Amino acid sequence: MSAQREDAVRRITASDILARKGRAPIVCLTAYSAPMAEILDDHCDVLLVGDSVGMVVHGLPNTVGVTLEMMILHAQAVMRGSKRAMVVVDMPFGSYEGSPGGAYANAVRIMKETGAQAVKVESGLTVPETIAYLVQRGVPVMGHVGLRPQSVMVEGGFKAKGRTADERARVLAEAKATAQAGAFSVVVEGVAESLAGDITRALDVPTIGIGASAECDGQILVVDDMLGLFDWTPRFVRRYGDLRGEISKAVAAYADDVRGRRFPGATETYFSKAAE
Ligand code: KIV
Question: Ligand 1: does its nearest atom lie under 6 Å from the Cβ of 30?
């Protein structure tokens, strides 16, 4: 093996995340572009190129229409923008549920074409077999249980999970099977605090919560939601910024300048002494 440059920044890996179980909370956000990844890299342990990109960036009604090519393109951008955070890429609907061999071919494409460190799959009861197949062949996998957005068509909407005893038992069983299959961490979405606590205590790998309380080992949010880019966000999302308002103000000021003909020419900018 050839030596790595000593000054190269080392990326966080799946085993680093695994070692954080029960220790310092794991900070995760979604990222879809190079400039955003560059900003988030200093603060996050994991950047997830989520298939939420379909809804957030491409205006799709859900994640079902997201393709492998879209995921690869956005993951390449996020890898270019970041240096330190672990980059995990969602396997989109239809790219891993058919057969373990098909999932492996698609996961390998993602890893080879993007350089990302891991893939994420929504892990209902049929998927752990595929997780084991991928992990045994060198693909680190993050699972995803509870509310699984790719199941929106059979569920008839995005529904929180764990209201009944049966549902709680099923989500807990899915989480355990996901971890036993070899996932290095499990996203737990849209479940009650007590169920998130039960899952976190039952697994020996970290849980990453979204709308699942502080009972998890880490948290993830869709970055555009927490930055306030939309006029609507799910109720569990705290907005840490008002980018929609800021962008609107900036664009209004620009439009005002255009209409007021307030734009410098090259003589005042490129050719001026100050610009030399
Ligand atoms: O696609 C996504 O962004 C996700 C996270 C919100 C967990 O799966």
Answer: yes
